[in-house]
Write a structure and sequence with these properties.
mainly alpha, 4 helices, binds zinc ion, 105 residues, Four Helix Bundle (Hemerythrin (Met), subunit A)
């Protein structure tokens, strides 16, 4: 083997010895979620749970008041299928759509 080839081989070998763990892959997010992201996720989940809990408590109040199954906005009966799916929903399907669209006053 000629000396210059040996030299190139040595160069190549050194190159492969670069620490692989620290390699940056631009544009590819391979990191596990950071603590910030995890806290954000936990907060969102917690808010959802609290919202459902609040709706369930409202539903219990409406059962006690005898208005359960009636839309709190327009007073229309909420469909049985809808109540089966979302027992705690305060709105009929029409008002729920408006509420989601931000059109409910
Ligand atoms: Zn309604």
């Amino acid at each position: 083997m000629r000396p210059e080839v040996r030299h190139l081989e040595a160069e190549a070998w050194r190159g492969s010895e670069q620490p692989v763990a620290g390699v940056e892959l631009p544009g590819i997010d391979t990191d596990p979620p950071s603590q910030e992201e995890e806290e954000y996720l936990a907060r969102v989940l917690w808010q959802n749970e609290r919202e459902i809990l609040a709706q369930a408590q409202d539903a219990l109040t409406r059962i006690a008041a005898g208005t359960y199954g009636l839309c709190v906005h327009c007073g229309a009966p909420i469909g049985k299928e809808r109540l089966d799916l979302l027992p705690h929903t305060p709105y009929c399907i029409d008002c729920a759509r408006k509420a989601e669209a931000g059109e409910l006053d």
